[in-house]
Protein backbone atom coordinates (compact mmCIF):
# COMPACT_ATOMS: atom_id res chain seq x y z
CA UNK A 1 0.00 0.00 0.00
CA UNK A 2 1.45 3.39 -0.96
CA UNK A 3 1.89 6.12 1.62
CA UNK A 4 -0.63 8.31 -0.24
CA UNK A 5 -3.22 5.50 -0.09
CA UNK A 6 -2.47 4.93 3.59
CA UNK A 7 -3.07 8.60 4.40
CA UNK A 8 -6.25 8.65 2.33
CA UNK A 9 -7.71 5.69 4.20
CA UNK A 10 -6.73 7.21 7.54
CA UNK A 11 -8.59 10.36 6.53
CA UNK A 12 -11.72 8.30 5.85
CA UNK A 13 -12.03 7.08 9.45
CA UNK A 14 -13.62 10.27 10.94
CA UNK A 15 -16.14 10.30 8.11
CA UNK A 16 -16.96 6.65 8.58
CA UNK A 17 -17.38 7.18 12.33
CA UNK A 18 -20.10 9.70 11.50
CA UNK A 19 -21.95 7.11 9.45
CA UNK A 20 -20.81 8.15 5.96
CA UNK A 21 -20.42 5.46 3.32
CA UNK A 22 -17.72 6.03 0.74
CA UNK A 23 -17.84 4.44 -2.72
CA UNK A 24 -14.69 4.35 -4.81
CA UNK A 25 -13.20 2.51 -7.73
CA UNK A 26 -9.97 0.76 -6.65
CA UNK A 27 -7.30 -1.18 -8.42
CA UNK A 28 -5.78 -4.28 -6.75
CA UNK A 29 -2.73 -6.18 -7.95
CA UNK A 30 -2.97 -9.88 -6.97
CA UNK A 31 -0.01 -11.72 -8.44
CA UNK A 32 1.06 -8.48 -10.07
CA UNK A 33 -2.04 -8.31 -12.25
CA UNK A 34 -4.33 -5.28 -12.03
CA UNK A 35 -7.93 -6.01 -10.99
CA UNK A 36 -10.48 -3.17 -10.96
CA UNK A 37 -13.20 -3.33 -8.30
CA UNK A 38 -15.94 -1.14 -6.95
CA UNK A 39 -15.24 -0.72 -3.22
CA UNK A 40 -17.74 0.40 -0.59
CA UNK A 41 -16.18 1.66 2.65
CA UNK A 42 -18.26 1.84 5.83
CA UNK A 43 -17.56 2.17 9.55
CA UNK A 44 -17.73 -0.69 12.04
CA UNK A 45 -17.39 -0.54 15.81
CA UNK A 46 -14.71 -2.94 16.98
CA UNK A 47 -14.68 -4.79 20.28
CA UNK A 48 -12.40 -2.26 21.97
CA UNK A 49 -14.62 0.67 20.95
CA UNK A 50 -12.47 1.88 18.10
CA UNK A 51 -13.90 2.52 14.67
CA UNK A 52 -12.75 0.12 12.02
CA UNK A 53 -13.17 0.24 8.26
CA UNK A 54 -15.17 -2.39 6.44
CA UNK A 55 -14.27 -2.55 2.76
CA UNK A 56 -16.59 -4.52 0.53
CA UNK A 57 -15.28 -5.36 -2.91
CA UNK A 58 -18.07 -5.50 -5.45
CA UNK A 59 -17.95 -6.39 -9.05
CA UNK A 60 -17.64 -3.12 -10.94
CA UNK A 61 -20.64 -2.13 -12.99
CA UNK A 62 -18.39 -0.18 -15.29
CA UNK A 63 -15.56 -1.71 -17.21
CA UNK A 64 -12.58 0.66 -17.25
CA UNK A 65 -9.80 0.50 -19.74
CA UNK A 66 -6.15 1.13 -18.84
CA UNK A 67 -6.35 4.85 -19.64
CA UNK A 68 -9.35 5.34 -17.39
CA UNK A 69 -7.71 3.45 -14.54
CA UNK A 70 -4.59 5.56 -14.87
CA UNK A 71 -6.68 8.71 -14.89
CA UNK A 72 -8.38 7.65 -11.64
CA UNK A 73 -4.99 7.00 -10.02
CA UNK A 74 -3.69 10.37 -11.24
CA UNK A 75 -6.69 12.15 -9.70
CA UNK A 76 -6.08 10.37 -6.40
CA UNK A 77 -2.39 11.32 -6.24
CA UNK A 78 -2.33 14.79 -7.81
CA UNK A 79 -1.81 17.75 -5.43
CA UNK A 80 -4.50 19.59 -7.41
CA UNK A 81 -7.80 19.67 -5.57
CA UNK A 82 -10.52 17.93 -7.62
CA UNK A 83 -14.16 17.93 -6.50
CA UNK A 84 -17.36 16.77 -8.22
CA UNK A 85 -20.80 18.18 -7.39
CA UNK A 86 -24.25 17.44 -8.73
CA UNK A 87 -26.16 20.10 -10.63
CA UNK A 88 -27.50 21.56 -7.35
CA UNK A 89 -24.03 21.93 -5.81
CA UNK A 90 -24.12 18.87 -3.54
CA UNK A 91 -20.79 17.05 -3.16
CA UNK A 92 -20.51 13.74 -5.03
CA UNK A 93 -16.79 13.05 -4.59
CA UNK A 94 -13.44 14.74 -4.09
CA UNK A 95 -9.88 13.52 -4.38
CA UNK A 96 -7.59 13.20 -1.34
CA UNK A 97 -6.03 16.62 -1.84
CA UNK A 98 -9.47 18.29 -1.80
CA UNK A 99 -10.68 16.17 1.11
CA UNK A 100 -7.62 17.00 3.24
CA UNK A 101 -7.98 20.73 2.63
CA UNK A 102 -11.74 20.97 3.00
CA UNK A 103 -13.07 18.44 5.53
CA UNK A 104 -16.64 19.11 6.60
CA UNK A 105 -17.38 21.49 3.70
CA UNK A 106 -19.63 19.39 1.48
CA UNK A 107 -21.39 21.86 -0.80
CA UNK A 108 -20.29 23.89 -3.77
CA UNK A 109 -21.15 27.20 -2.11
CA UNK A 110 -19.29 26.26 1.09
CA UNK A 111 -16.07 26.10 -0.93
CA UNK A 112 -16.27 29.84 -1.67
CA UNK A 113 -15.85 32.66 0.83
CA UNK A 114 -18.56 34.56 -1.04
CA UNK A 115 -21.62 32.31 -1.18
CA UNK A 116 -23.59 34.70 -3.40
CA UNK A 117 -20.73 34.68 -5.89
CA UNK A 118 -20.77 30.86 -5.85
CA UNK A 119 -24.49 30.94 -6.67
CA UNK A 120 -23.81 33.20 -9.63
CA UNK A 121 -21.21 30.74 -10.93
CA UNK A 122 -23.70 27.88 -10.74
CA UNK A 123 -26.11 29.87 -12.88
CA UNK A 124 -23.30 30.86 -15.27
CA UNK A 125 -22.32 27.20 -15.81
CA UNK A 126 -25.79 26.41 -17.09
CA UNK A 127 -25.11 28.66 -20.09
CA UNK A 128 -21.34 28.60 -20.58
CA UNK A 129 -20.58 25.07 -19.23
CA UNK A 130 -16.92 26.01 -18.64
CA UNK A 131 -15.13 28.84 -16.84
CA UNK A 132 -11.86 29.73 -15.09
CA UNK A 133 -11.25 32.29 -12.38
CA UNK A 134 -8.91 33.40 -9.62
CA UNK A 135 -10.73 33.86 -6.35
CA UNK A 136 -10.45 33.44 -2.59
CA UNK A 137 -11.63 29.98 -1.54
CA UNK A 138 -12.67 28.65 1.85
CA UNK A 139 -10.58 25.82 3.26
CA UNK A 140 -10.99 23.92 6.50
CA UNK A 141 -9.04 26.42 8.61
CA UNK A 142 -8.09 29.30 6.34
CA UNK A 143 -8.87 31.31 3.23
CA UNK A 144 -6.54 31.07 0.23
CA UNK A 145 -6.30 32.37 -3.30
CA UNK A 146 -6.98 29.55 -5.79
CA UNK A 147 -7.08 29.27 -9.54
CA UNK A 148 -10.35 27.43 -10.21
CA UNK A 149 -11.33 25.58 -13.40
CA UNK A 150 -15.01 24.57 -13.65
CA UNK A 151 -16.87 22.59 -16.23
CA UNK A 152 -20.36 21.13 -16.54
CA UNK A 153 -20.34 17.43 -17.44
CA UNK A 154 -22.71 14.44 -17.34
CA UNK A 155 -22.68 12.01 -14.42
CA UNK A 156 -21.80 8.63 -16.01
CA UNK A 157 -23.89 6.82 -13.41
CA UNK A 158 -27.08 8.91 -13.30
CA UNK A 159 -26.92 10.76 -16.60
CA UNK A 160 -27.64 14.00 -14.73
CA UNK A 161 -25.53 17.16 -14.88
CA UNK A 162 -22.47 17.31 -12.59
CA UNK A 163 -19.88 19.98 -11.96
CA UNK A 164 -16.17 19.15 -12.00
CA UNK A 165 -13.99 21.66 -10.11
CA UNK A 166 -10.19 21.66 -10.18
CA UNK A 167 -8.21 24.03 -7.95
CA UNK A 168 -4.61 24.86 -7.19
CA UNK A 169 -3.22 27.33 -4.69
CA UNK A 170 -1.89 30.63 -6.11
CA UNK A 171 -1.71 32.57 -2.83
CA UNK A 172 2.04 33.16 -3.05
CA UNK A 173 1.72 34.38 -6.62
CA UNK A 174 -1.15 36.71 -5.69
CA UNK A 175 0.81 38.04 -2.71
CA UNK A 176 3.75 38.75 -4.99
CA UNK A 177 1.50 40.38 -7.60
CA UNK A 178 -0.09 42.56 -4.92
CA UNK A 179 3.33 43.56 -3.61
CA UNK A 180 4.44 44.35 -7.16
CA UNK A 181 1.33 46.47 -7.78
CA UNK A 182 1.88 48.34 -4.54
CA UNK A 183 5.55 48.87 -5.36
CA UNK A 184 4.66 50.00 -8.88
CA UNK A 185 2.10 52.46 -7.52
CA UNK A 186 4.55 53.73 -4.91
CA UNK A 187 7.18 54.18 -7.62
CA UNK A 188 4.70 56.04 -9.83
CA UNK A 189 3.78 58.35 -6.94
CA UNK A 190 7.45 59.03 -6.23
CA UNK A 191 8.26 59.64 -9.90
CA UNK A 192 5.36 62.05 -10.33
CA UNK A 193 6.32 63.82 -7.11
CA UNK A 194 9.90 64.46 -8.23
CA UNK A 195 10.78 67.94 -9.44
CA UNK A 196 13.10 66.48 -12.10
CA UNK A 197 12.05 65.47 -15.59
CA UNK A 198 12.45 61.74 -16.29
CA UNK A 199 12.54 60.09 -19.71
CA UNK A 200 13.13 56.34 -20.00
CA UNK A 201 13.94 54.99 -23.47
CA UNK A 202 14.22 51.35 -24.53
CA UNK A 203 17.05 49.93 -26.62
CA UNK A 204 15.19 50.96 -29.80
CA UNK A 205 14.84 54.55 -28.57
CA UNK A 206 11.12 54.32 -27.89
CA UNK A 207 9.61 56.06 -24.86
CA UNK A 208 8.97 53.63 -22.02
CA UNK A 209 8.11 56.16 -19.32
CA UNK A 210 8.00 59.92 -18.93
CA UNK A 211 6.74 62.01 -16.01
CA UNK A 212 4.79 65.25 -15.81
CA UNK A 213 7.84 67.26 -14.77
CA UNK A 214 9.49 66.37 -18.09
CA UNK A 215 6.42 67.54 -20.00
CA UNK A 216 6.42 70.80 -18.02
CA UNK A 217 10.10 71.49 -18.73
CA UNK A 218 9.56 71.22 -22.49
CA UNK A 219 6.03 72.70 -22.62
CA UNK A 220 4.50 69.42 -23.79
CA UNK A 221 0.72 69.68 -23.50
CA UNK A 222 0.02 65.96 -23.95
CA UNK A 223 -0.20 63.84 -20.77
CA UNK A 224 2.86 61.66 -20.01
CA UNK A 225 1.09 58.40 -20.86
CA UNK A 226 0.36 59.69 -24.38
CA UNK A 227 4.12 59.81 -25.09
CA UNK A 228 4.73 56.12 -24.40
CA UNK A 229 5.93 54.37 -27.56
CA UNK A 230 7.00 57.61 -29.27
CA UNK A 231 10.21 57.60 -31.34
CA UNK A 232 12.74 59.59 -29.25
CA UNK A 233 14.78 60.55 -32.31
CA UNK A 234 11.85 62.50 -33.70
CA UNK A 235 11.09 63.99 -30.28
CA UNK A 236 14.68 65.20 -29.84
CA UNK A 237 14.73 66.66 -33.34
CA UNK A 238 11.52 68.61 -32.71
CA UNK A 239 12.72 69.94 -29.33
CA UNK A 240 16.26 71.00 -30.27
CA UNK A 241 15.04 74.55 -30.88
CA UNK A 242 14.69 74.94 -27.10
CA UNK A 243 18.50 75.10 -26.78
CA UNK A 244 21.06 77.78 -27.63
CA UNK A 245 23.20 75.16 -29.40
CA UNK A 246 20.64 72.85 -31.07
CA UNK A 247 23.10 70.90 -33.21
CA UNK A 248 25.40 70.40 -30.25
CA UNK A 249 22.41 69.14 -28.26
CA UNK A 250 21.67 66.51 -30.92
CA UNK A 251 25.30 65.50 -31.38
CA UNK A 252 25.82 64.95 -27.65
CA UNK A 253 22.76 62.68 -27.45
CA UNK A 254 24.07 60.51 -30.29
CA UNK A 255 27.54 60.43 -28.73
CA UNK A 256 26.27 59.22 -25.35
CA UNK A 257 23.99 56.56 -26.86
CA UNK A 258 26.76 55.26 -29.10
CA UNK A 259 29.17 54.91 -26.16
CA UNK A 260 26.69 53.28 -23.74
CA UNK A 261 29.59 53.06 -21.34
CA UNK A 262 29.03 55.27 -18.33
CA UNK A 263 26.89 57.87 -16.66
CA UNK A 264 27.33 61.43 -17.87
CA UNK A 265 26.16 64.86 -16.79
CA UNK A 266 25.85 67.95 -18.99
CA UNK A 267 24.85 71.58 -18.55
CA UNK A 268 22.37 72.77 -21.18
CA UNK A 269 21.66 76.43 -21.90
CA UNK A 270 18.11 77.11 -23.03
CA UNK A 271 17.14 79.70 -25.60
CA UNK A 272 14.76 81.30 -23.09
CA UNK A 273 17.57 81.87 -20.56
CA UNK A 274 17.01 78.78 -18.43
CA UNK A 275 19.71 76.29 -17.48
CA UNK A 276 19.10 72.53 -17.39
CA UNK A 277 21.30 69.85 -15.92
CA UNK A 278 20.97 66.60 -17.86
CA UNK A 279 22.07 63.19 -16.58
CA UNK A 280 22.42 60.12 -18.80
CA UNK A 281 22.41 56.58 -17.39
CA UNK A 282 22.67 53.48 -19.63
CA UNK A 283 20.66 50.51 -18.30
CA UNK A 284 22.14 47.02 -18.33
CA UNK A 285 20.58 43.79 -17.02
CA UNK A 286 22.91 40.77 -16.94
CA UNK A 287 25.31 42.72 -19.17
CA UNK A 288 22.60 43.20 -21.79
CA UNK A 289 21.70 46.74 -22.84
CA UNK A 290 18.06 47.66 -22.20
CA UNK A 291 17.93 51.38 -22.98
CA UNK A 292 18.79 54.45 -20.96
CA UNK A 293 17.40 57.01 -18.56
CA UNK A 294 17.55 60.79 -19.05
CA UNK A 295 17.10 63.04 -16.02
CA UNK A 296 16.55 66.77 -16.60
CA UNK A 297 16.71 69.24 -13.72
CA UNK A 298 16.03 72.98 -13.96
CA UNK A 299 18.97 74.66 -12.20
CA UNK A 300 18.23 78.21 -13.40
CA UNK A 301 17.62 79.55 -9.90
CA UNK A 302 20.72 77.80 -8.60
CA UNK A 303 22.91 79.17 -11.41
CA UNK A 304 21.58 82.69 -10.93
CA UNK A 305 22.07 82.42 -7.19
CA UNK A 306 25.63 81.24 -7.70
CA UNK A 307 26.25 84.10 -10.13
CA UNK A 308 24.80 86.52 -7.59
CA UNK A 309 27.06 85.12 -4.87
CA UNK A 310 30.09 85.47 -7.15
CA UNK A 311 29.07 89.03 -8.02
CA UNK A 312 28.58 89.98 -4.38
CA UNK A 313 31.84 88.33 -3.37
CA UNK A 314 33.71 90.39 -5.98
CA UNK A 315 31.73 93.65 -5.80
CA UNK A 316 31.87 96.64 -3.47
CA UNK A 317 28.29 97.01 -2.15
CA UNK A 318 28.36 100.82 -1.92
CA UNK A 319 29.69 101.73 -5.37
CA UNK A 320 28.99 98.56 -7.38
CA UNK A 321 32.62 98.50 -8.55
CA UNK A 322 34.90 95.51 -8.23
CA UNK A 323 36.29 95.07 -4.70
CA UNK A 324 39.87 94.49 -3.52
CA UNK A 325 39.61 90.70 -3.95
CA UNK A 326 38.48 91.07 -7.56
CA UNK A 327 41.21 93.67 -8.16
CA UNK A 328 43.94 91.30 -6.98
CA UNK A 329 42.68 88.42 -9.16
CA UNK A 330 42.48 90.65 -12.26
CA UNK A 331 45.85 92.30 -11.53
CA UNK A 332 47.53 88.89 -11.38
CA UNK A 333 46.04 87.93 -14.77
CA UNK A 334 47.25 91.18 -16.34
CA UNK A 335 50.71 90.79 -14.77
CA UNK A 336 51.03 87.31 -16.33
CA UNK A 337 50.00 88.68 -19.72
CA UNK A 338 52.62 91.44 -19.42
CA UNK A 339 55.33 88.87 -18.72
CA UNK A 340 54.26 86.13 -21.14
CA UNK A 341 52.71 88.11 -24.02
CA UNK A 342 54.66 91.41 -23.77
CA UNK A 343 51.38 93.26 -23.20
CA UNK A 344 51.48 96.86 -21.96
CA UNK A 345 49.23 97.80 -19.07
CA UNK A 346 48.77 100.76 -16.73
CA UNK A 347 47.49 101.13 -13.18
CA UNK A 348 45.83 104.22 -11.72
CA UNK A 349 45.53 104.81 -7.98
CA UNK A 350 42.90 107.46 -7.16
CA UNK A 351 42.35 108.96 -3.70
CA UNK A 352 39.76 111.60 -2.72
CA UNK A 353 41.42 114.71 -1.30
CA UNK A 354 40.55 115.61 2.30
CA UNK A 355 37.83 112.93 2.45
CA UNK A 356 37.91 112.81 6.26
CA UNK A 357 37.01 116.50 6.36
CA UNK A 358 34.03 115.87 4.07
CA UNK A 359 32.77 113.11 6.35
CA UNK A 360 33.37 115.11 9.53
CA UNK A 361 31.76 118.29 8.15
CA UNK A 362 28.89 117.02 6.04
CA UNK A 363 28.41 113.51 7.43
CA UNK A 364 29.05 110.04 6.14
CA UNK A 365 25.88 109.99 4.02
CA UNK A 366 27.21 112.91 1.96
CA UNK A 367 30.64 111.27 1.85
CA UNK A 368 29.02 108.15 0.40
CA UNK A 369 27.50 110.33 -2.33
CA UNK A 370 31.01 111.42 -3.24
CA UNK A 371 32.20 107.81 -3.43
CA UNK A 372 29.30 106.87 -5.70
CA UNK A 373 29.91 109.96 -7.91
CA UNK A 374 33.54 108.95 -8.37
CA UNK A 375 32.50 105.36 -9.22
CA UNK A 376 29.96 106.59 -11.80
CA UNK A 377 32.57 108.88 -13.39
CA UNK A 378 34.93 105.95 -13.80
CA UNK A 379 32.22 103.70 -15.28
CA UNK A 380 31.19 106.30 -17.85
CA UNK A 381 34.68 107.37 -18.98
CA UNK A 382 36.64 104.13 -19.08
CA UNK A 383 36.79 101.42 -21.72
CA UNK A 384 34.96 98.09 -21.35
CA UNK A 385 38.34 96.41 -21.02
CA UNK A 386 39.37 98.62 -18.05
CA UNK A 387 38.58 97.46 -14.52
CA UNK A 388 37.79 100.17 -11.92
CA UNK A 389 37.88 98.94 -8.30
CA UNK A 390 37.26 100.37 -4.87
CA UNK A 391 40.26 99.31 -2.86
CA UNK A 392 38.80 100.47 0.46
CA UNK A 393 37.77 103.77 2.08
CA UNK A 394 38.28 106.59 -0.39
CA UNK A 395 40.94 104.77 -2.43
CA UNK A 396 40.21 103.50 -5.96
CA UNK A 397 42.29 101.56 -8.50
CA UNK A 398 41.91 101.22 -12.25
CA UNK A 399 43.59 98.40 -14.24
CA UNK A 400 44.04 99.46 -17.89
CA UNK A 401 45.28 96.64 -20.19
CA UNK A 402 47.01 97.64 -23.46
CA UNK A 403 47.68 101.18 -22.20
CA UNK A 404 50.90 103.17 -22.69
CA UNK A 405 52.25 105.69 -20.17
CA UNK A 406 51.21 108.69 -22.25
CA UNK A 407 47.68 107.32 -22.83
CA UNK A 408 47.24 106.50 -19.16
CA UNK A 409 48.45 109.93 -18.10
CA UNK A 410 46.04 111.64 -20.52
CA UNK A 411 43.07 109.65 -19.24
CA UNK A 412 44.07 110.34 -15.62
CA UNK A 413 44.04 114.12 -16.21
CA UNK A 414 40.65 113.91 -17.95
CA UNK A 415 39.16 111.97 -15.04
CA UNK A 416 40.64 114.42 -12.55
CA UNK A 417 39.00 117.42 -14.31
CA UNK A 418 35.60 115.72 -14.64
CA UNK A 419 35.56 114.84 -10.95
CA UNK A 420 36.57 118.36 -9.89
CA UNK A 421 33.82 119.89 -12.04
CA UNK A 422 31.07 117.57 -10.79
CA UNK A 423 28.65 118.84 -8.18
CA UNK A 424 27.18 116.79 -5.33
CA UNK A 425 23.74 117.88 -4.21
CA UNK A 426 24.02 117.77 -0.43
CA UNK A 427 21.12 118.38 1.94
CA UNK A 428 22.42 121.74 3.15
CA UNK A 429 24.35 123.00 0.10
CA UNK A 430 26.06 121.58 -2.99
CA UNK A 431 29.75 120.77 -2.72
CA UNK A 432 32.70 119.72 -4.87
CA UNK A 433 35.72 117.55 -4.18
CA UNK A 434 39.00 116.72 -5.92
CA UNK A 435 41.22 113.65 -6.23
CA UNK A 436 44.89 112.86 -6.51
CA UNK A 437 45.91 110.23 -9.07
CA UNK A 438 49.08 108.13 -9.25
CA UNK A 439 49.94 106.53 -12.58
CA UNK A 440 52.26 103.56 -13.08
CA UNK A 441 52.66 100.59 -15.38
CA UNK A 442 52.92 96.81 -15.07
CA UNK A 443 56.49 95.71 -15.81
CA UNK A 444 57.76 92.23 -16.77
CA UNK A 445 60.38 92.61 -14.04
CA UNK A 446 57.87 93.22 -11.22
CA UNK A 447 58.24 90.50 -8.60
CA UNK A 448 54.58 90.58 -7.61
CA UNK A 449 51.41 92.70 -7.58
CA UNK A 450 52.50 94.50 -4.41
CA UNK A 451 55.46 95.92 -6.36
CA UNK A 452 53.07 97.55 -8.86
CA UNK A 453 50.63 98.86 -6.26
CA UNK A 454 53.42 100.30 -4.12
CA UNK A 455 54.72 102.22 -7.15
CA UNK A 456 51.21 103.54 -7.90
CA UNK A 457 50.77 104.45 -4.23
CA UNK A 458 54.06 106.38 -4.25
CA UNK A 459 52.94 108.29 -7.36
CA UNK A 460 49.60 109.12 -5.75
CA UNK A 461 51.28 110.46 -2.58
CA UNK A 462 53.61 112.50 -4.78
CA UNK A 463 50.51 114.14 -6.26
CA UNK A 464 49.25 114.83 -2.72
CA UNK A 465 52.53 116.44 -1.70
CA UNK A 466 52.61 118.55 -4.85
CA UNK A 467 49.31 120.21 -3.85
CA UNK A 468 46.56 117.65 -4.51
CA UNK A 469 44.07 117.72 -7.43
CA UNK A 470 46.79 116.60 -9.78
CA UNK A 471 48.34 113.56 -11.52
CA UNK A 472 51.81 112.13 -10.80
CA UNK A 473 53.57 109.40 -12.78
CA UNK A 474 56.11 106.78 -11.64
CA UNK A 475 56.49 104.42 -14.54
UniProtKB/TrEMBL annotation:
List, for all copies, the residue spans of the domain called GGDEF: 343-475
PROSITE patterns cross-referenced by the UniProt entry: GGDEF
Q: Return the Pfam families for the record.
A: GGDEF (PF00990), PAS_4 (PF08448)
- Gene Ontology MF term list: diguanylate cyclase activity
Which cofactors? Mg(2+)
EC numbers for this chain: 2.7.7.65
Reaction(s) this enzyme catalyzes, per UniProt? 2 GTP = 3',3'-c-di-GMP + 2 diphosphate
Q: Which InterPro entries match?
A: Diguanylate_Cyclase, GGDEF_dom, Nucleotide_cyclase, PAS-like_dom_sf, PAS_4, Rev_trsase/Diguanyl_cyclase
What is this protein identified as? diguanylate cyclase
Amino acid sequence: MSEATRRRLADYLPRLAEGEVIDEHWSFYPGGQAVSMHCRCSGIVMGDGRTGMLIEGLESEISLDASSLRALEAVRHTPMMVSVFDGHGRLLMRNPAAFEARRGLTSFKACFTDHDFAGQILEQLKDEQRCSLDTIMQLRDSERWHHVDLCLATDPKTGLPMIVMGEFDITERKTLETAQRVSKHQLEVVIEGLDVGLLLEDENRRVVMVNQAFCDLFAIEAPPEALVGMDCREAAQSSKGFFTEPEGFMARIEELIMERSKQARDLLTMADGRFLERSYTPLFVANQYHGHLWVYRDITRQRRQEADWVRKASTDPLTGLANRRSFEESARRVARAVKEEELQAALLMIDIDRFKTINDTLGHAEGDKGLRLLADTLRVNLRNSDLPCRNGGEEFMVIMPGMTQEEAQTIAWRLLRQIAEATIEAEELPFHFTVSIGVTGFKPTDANIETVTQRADAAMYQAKHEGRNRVAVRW
